[in-house]
Amino acid sequence: MKLVLLIMTVLLSLTCVFSQESQPDPNPAKNETLEANDRTPAASVEEDPSPVFSSAENIAEEKSPGTNLNKKLAELKPESVPAAKFSPLKPKKIDILEEVKSKSFSGKSLKPQTNAGDKFHWKTAIVESLYFLGVQQSLRMLQKKTRREIKGPFFRDWGRSVKNLGKWRDGDSVFTNYVAHPMQGAVTGRIFINNSERSRRQEFGRSKEYWKSRAKAMAWSAAWSTQFELGPISEASIGNVGLYDRVGPNRMGWVDLVITPTAGTLVLIGEDVIDKYILKGWLEKRRSRRSVRLLRTFITPFQSFTNFFHGKHPWKRYTRH
Hints:
The chain has 321 residues and is mainly alpha-helical. 58% of the residues lie in helices and 0% in strands. The protein has helices at residues 2-22, 28-39, 55-63, 68-76, 96-103, 122-140, 144-148, 154-163, 174-195, 208-230, 255-283, 289-299, 301-309. The radius of gyration is 50 Å and the shape is elongated.
């Protein structure tokens, strides 16, 4: 009995299968579209210019990873630059000068920078010295003997005055030769120091830099002293000092040419000593700012006076605030 039922079941199954195969398809167009999609190769996806990819395209890409789609996507991406290897134990050496040259817009070579702390300001030094020379000549014009000699041929009288230089004494008083002229030398020497960024930072002491800077200041003072005595804007050219002889020594002597720079430099060094040991080391301690300013102004007067030409306050000191 069981065998009969099994045979009948198999026959019914076969009958249903054959009946489904023989039944016509109600929507043949849809089936043709599906068959056409199945027959479409994966390369057709690449011909689509649209940047948006469907899920079918993703499936095609997964099935064929070596297609031109990957190449096209790689072209859209910027070329990646390989990262520089970095090792914390061996830091990379950076040439700053080379980087600056590479970033410069022009092809011109860079000029080497000089040390700004060693610069000497020639222009301002000459201008300040001319200011001081103008003050001196203005005071001389107050003298009647100077105004009397303004008349006459300028170059001939100037030359005759210079030729009369030959003796040590010039007939002036001791105060003029050994006090006033050293004060003049101290001012011109301080003008040099104020315009030398290295010299004005030096304090009195045994250092080579200090004495070298003061020697340069003495040379500057000697040059301007010679100009004041014999130059084109001098006592010899304006007022013709030396043109006539007094009773006794000649009025044009070597005393001013020697004493002005040498004794003037000694006065300048004396101010440096006072500034370091008396002002800075004693008087400026435990005093108000106003008192310190007054002390600096009057105890070191030549430094204060030249600060006026330099456009600074009279109490300005470059070695401290």
